[in-house]
Amino acid sequence: MAQAHLPSEGPKIIAHRGLCRRAPENTLAAFELAYRTGVQWLETDVDLLKDGTPILLHDATLDRTTNTSGPVSARTSQDLPAIDAGSWFSPAFAGEPLPTLASLIDFLNRTGMNCNVELKSGKESDAVPEAMIAATLPQLARLNPGIEIIVSSFNPDLLAQFHEAAPEYTIAALFKPRHLAKDWIGVAHGCGATYIHPKDHLRLPSLLPIARREGFRVGVWTVNKKARARELLGLGVESIITNKADKFLPLAVE
């Protein structure tokens, strides 16, 4: 089966949770700012409400980035109108809604932006892989042709199940430095990954030749120093996931 929404080759500057320095993270406001500044790629996090509605939120609780508290998994879509995801960042964003995955898909279809969708599961979420896959696939299926998508997660079991259910989507395996001391190659191949997305760390350059040998494309998070981003791109890293995407855009064409 041909891959759907296959990411093109070449450098990518990806806005980590949108332009999260200038607007509340993982909101349509942050995505809209990225779009207006010419950014072509977003990164966002998907978790599930109690009723299975996929929403965009990094944390397992609502405490840090909304006007309310408690686990995401304790709320339903009926609670969404009362949740303010903007005031914590600035009064200028008061009333900014907690977005659903459906609203993100509508936004991508309107703007033509591309997106790295990180699926939460395991220690970072109460969502189980089967429920996450069942909730996200119908939404991804609504994307217009030509929009490029990467599906990522720290949970290799989730990625393997997602790849089995929908092999047409491109998979990225996320890694923290401690994970790279283990059999990361087997993990990445086992979940059908095209990309590996390691966290930036000092030993990363020595990883890149191994990744290339194994046939993986590489994206690195979260890189906020321009000199480091330039260095990594020069070493063959394809994607830079950053909080400063608007500032880093020229790096993609150097």
Molecular structure report:
This is Glycerophosphoryl diester phosphodiesterase. Helix content is 28%, strand content 18%. The chain is α/β, with parallel strands linked by helices and 254 residues long. It has a single domain (12-61, 101-253), classed as Phosphatidylinositol (PI) phosphodiesterase (TIM Barrel), CATH 3.20.20.190. An eight-stranded parallel barrel has the order 1-2-4-5-6-7-8-9, surrounded by five helices. The model has no long low-confidence stretch (mean pLDDT 96).
| CATH C-level category | Alpha Beta
Q: What order do the SSEs take from the amino end to the carboxyl end, as H and E?
A: EHEEHEHEHEHEHEHEH
Identify the CATH homologous superfamily: Phosphatidylinositol (PI) phosphodiesterase
Report the CATH architecture.
Alpha-Beta Barrel
Layout of helices and strands:
Elements lengths: L11 E5 L11 H9 L4 E8 L5 E3 L44 H11 L2 E6 L9 H12 L8 E5 L2 H10 L4 E6 L8 H7 L4 E4 L5 H10 L3 E4 L5 H9 L4 E4 L2 H4 L6
Parallel strand pairs: 1-2, 1-9, 2-4, 4-5, 5-6, 6-7, 7-8, 8-9
Antiparallel strand pairs: 2-3
Helix pairs in contact: 3-4
Protein name: Glycerophosphoryl diester phosphodiesterase
GO molecular function: phosphoric diester hydrolase activity
InterPro entries: GP_PDE_dom, PLC-like_Pdiesterase_TIM-brl
